[in-house]
Amino acid sequence: MSTAQRILTTFEQIAGGPVPVGVRSWDGSTAGPSDPDVTVVFRNRRALRRVLWSPNEIGLARAYVSGDMDVEGDLFALIEGPAVIERIARRDLRELDRHEIRDIANNFLRLGALGLPPKPPAEEVRRRAGAKHSKDRDAEAVSHHYDVGNDFYRLILGPSMVYSCAYWATPGSGTLEDAQFAKMDLICRKLGLTKGMRLLDVGCGWGSMAIHAATHYGVDVVGVTISHEQRELALKRVAEAGMSDRIEIRLQDYRDVADGPYDAISSIGMSEHVGDAQLTNYACILFGLLRPGGRLLNHAIASVAPIAPQAKSPQTFVDRYIFPDGELLPLSHTVGALERAGFETRDSEALREHYALTLRSWVDDLRGSWDEAVELVGAARARTWLLYLAASALSFERGRITIHQVLAVRRHESGAAEMPRTRAGW
Length: 426
Fold this sequence. Notes:
By secondary structure, the chain is of the alpha/beta class. It has helices spanning 3-15, 45-53, 57-66, 75-79, 84-90, 98-110, 135-146, 150-157, 176-190, 208-217, 228-240, 279-289, 317-322, 331-341, 352-368, 370-377, 379-397, and strands spanning 22-24, 30-31, 38-42, 69-73, 198-202, 220-225, 247-251, 262-268, 290-303, 329-330, 344-350, 401-409.
């Protein structure tokens, strides 16, 4: 049996069934279909040791991010199709009998894959100081994700620099830039923005929403972020737009904002960082910053299944490499927190299919600028992002996760909410 065939056989044992991909080994041997859509290349034995020591998605991610394992062909075909990665990553090896475990162990032995666990790639987050969702720990987590480099984000996001779900009013029409404009405009209309209003943009990113609202709706905006690099570029973009007198960008945690009342608050792709334990406090803080009659638009990714008890050290690729301490919560948790804070929920719109399209566009942008991306952040980080964006697109397409725009209002004591009677009103 060739080295490549033994590798393929071992992974089929772990996956519990056929793995219809090509395999190429460090010795040049190949196995699998004669003309595969995707070939997994094992450049050295260390790739196998990574999986042996972490037989789940962490081991696979470490092998890919480090470059010990590579993918030639369509990455989407590897992740979707027969869901090869998922089957291996989610397989509970405790389900195997002792004969299967013995065979797998013997194959690893013959492949020379036994040995000490390799050091994880530098891009992986491991130890985290402080209590979860404390201000200092949140700042560290946000920095890990957002302070990668503004030029790198520009390659992926394009000129809009909007890092959240776009909105195609007519499916399949318009560019990503058009769809991001439409999304920001939709939020402004839902918030009922008019000239002279005061808007707080929580988690303002690179200032795109603030600039849009000030330019097209004549509002004064305070944007807050805890990313140094985001604030630096946001200030530059605000100045270039001639809006420095209308927009203030602060390096500030939302928990430290104390200059309300605001007429409206937008929170776009930010509450995923808040955490379930802090969600009601988050809602109460925003409620306190709004005037009576003011509206909040909370735009956030959500889970579509009940939350399982979380381990102390989650063994997930996203937690270790992308969003440390991030939590995707069911819509019911978000609405419940808003209502406990005193808000009246007036509308919720799911945009799941829109985010799948957005992510596919970002994948295309990253692939199309691959050499420049590697030059900016290194091959390992570029691999991390390609895997994350592709897997996320498939998660939205399959309905494993979704995204909602929840519109809530702080009502007047009389009960009046100053809301249009129908969605046509915005």
